[in-house]
Design goal:
single chain, about 325 residues, alpha+beta, Arc Repressor Mutant, subunit A, SH3 type barrels, 3 domains, 5-stranded antiparallel sheet, 4-stranded mixed sheet, 9 helices, WYL domain-containing protein
C-alpha cells in the first residue's frame, strides 16, 4: 500500500478481508491506469452483482474520498487531479495486465487493455508437457520422458525438475539429470510424454540445495558502453543516475540473460554497434558460471576450451 495513506485509512484497509482488498485493488488499478471505472468492471471481474459492486466502490470512496468522482455525462467514475493510488502496483503485473488482460473467465481469449505490441513467442511449451513438470517441481518428484538433445539425439531420461526458467526467448526447466548425474537445462519443446514417477525416491544429491550453479548468485555491475555515442540516454533508459546498474542473477542463468540483454562482456569493450548499450565492467564476475560463454564477447580468463559445452542449446 502507498505510504501516503493516512493512518485511519490504512487501518481500515488492513482490517478488510483479502478478497475485498483484491476488489479494491482492481478499482484502484482501473482508475490509476485507465482513468475510468464502471460498476460492471468490478461485477464482471469478480462475478458479483451490481449491488455488491456499488458497495465496493462506496468502500473505496470511504477510504480514499479524494481519489474518484462521478462523471455524470456518462455515469463513469474518474480519478481526480489529486488521485493517489491506495496500493503499490507491481510494474511487471501492471504491464502484463495492460498488454494481455486479466483473463476474466474460463477459456476467454486474453485481450490487451490498451493498444500495445510485444514480441511474438516463436516457441511455447505444450500444456501436456508443462503440467507434469510443474507438478514434479511442486511435489518434489522425478519425471520419466523421451528427450532429444543436440549432443546425443533422442533417448530416454529421468530427471528431477527444480525450477522453470524463461531466458527471454524460450522456456526451459532446470533439473537433475540421472543419466549424467548432474544439473542441466532441458528445453520443453524437446520433451515427449513426461510421466511423474510417484514411487521413485529423490536422493539428497538431486535436491535444489545441491545445485551449485542455481544457488550461486552473481552480482553484475553494468555501465554505459564506453563506445556509445549518448551515454546519458543509456543512463535514462536503465534508470542509473549514478552511471551504474547493479544486477543480481543466478550463475545458471547468467549467460542466457546477458545474451538476451545484449551486454558487451568483453574485457576491452570491443563489441561495436548501437545495440550494445551496456558493458559488463568486470567480466571476471562471470568466472565459473556454466554458460558464461553465451555472454556476448566473453573470454574465458584461462582460455579453457573444455568449458565451451553448454547443455540445452
Amino acid at each position: 500500500m502507498n505510504a501516503t495513506i493516512n493512518n485511519p485509512s490504512r487501518a481500515l484497509l488492513d482490517r478488510l478481508p483479502q478478497v475485498q482488498r483484491e476488489r479494491l485493488s482492481h478499482i484502484d488499478f482501473k482508475l490509476y491506469f485507465l482513468g475510468e471505472l464502471r460498476r460492471t468492471d468490478v461485477a464482471d471481474r469478480f462475478g458479483t452483482g451490481p449491488a455488491a459492486a456499488t458497495r465496493d466502490i462506496a468502500q473505496y470512496k470511504e477510504i480514499a474520498p479524494g481519489n474518484l468522482e462521478l462523471d455524470n455525462s456518462d455515469k463513469v467514475y474518474r480519478p481526480t487531479q489529486h488521485f493517489v493510488p491506495l496500493f503499490d502496483h507491481a510494474p511487471q503485473r501492471v504491464l502484463t495486465a495492460l498488454s494481455r488482460g486479466f483473463g476474466e473467465g474460463i477459456g476467454d481469449e486474453l485481450k490487451p487493455m490498451v493498444r500495445c505490441e510485444f514480441p511474438i513467442a516463436l516457441t511455447v511449451p505444450l500444456m501436456s508437457v508443462l503440467a507434469p513438470i510443474t507438478r514434479a517441481i511442486h511435489r518434489g518428484k522425478a519425471v520419466h520422458m523421451t528427450y532429444t538433445s543436440i549432443e546425443s539425439g533422442r533417448n530416454e531420461r529421468e530427471i528431477v525438475p527444480i525450477a522453470l526458467v524463461n531466458n527471454g526467448s524460450r522456456w526451459h526447466v532446470r533439473a537433475y539429470d540421472r543419466r549424467r548425474k548432474g544439473f542441466r537445462d532441458f528445453v520443453f519443446t524437446r520433451m515427449e510424454s513426461p510421466v511423474l514417477l510417484e514411487d521413485s525416491p529423490i536422493g539428497d544429491e538431486e535436491k535444489v540445495d545441491q545445485d551449485v550453479q542455481w544457488n550461486r548468485i552473481i552480482e553484475l555491475e553494468l555501465v554505459p558502453h564506453p563506445e556509445h555515442p549518448r551515454p546519458e540516454v543509456v543512463m535514462m533508459d536503465y534508470d542509473m543516475p549514478d552511471g551504474v546498474l547493479q544486477v543480481k542473477v543466478r550463475a545458471a542463468n547468467a549467460g542466457y540473460m546477458l545474451r538476451r540483454w545484449t551486454i558487451d562482456c568483453s574485457p576491452d569493450h570491443r563489441l561495436k554497434g548501437i545495440e550494445y548499450a551496456l558493458w559488463l565492467k568486470d567480466p571476471l564476475a562471470l568466472y565459473g558460471a556454466s554458460n558464461a560463454q553465451l555472454a556476448p564477447g566473453y573470454v574465458d580468463p584461462k582460455g579453457d576450451p573444455g568449458n565451451r559445452h553448454i547443455q540445452a542449446l
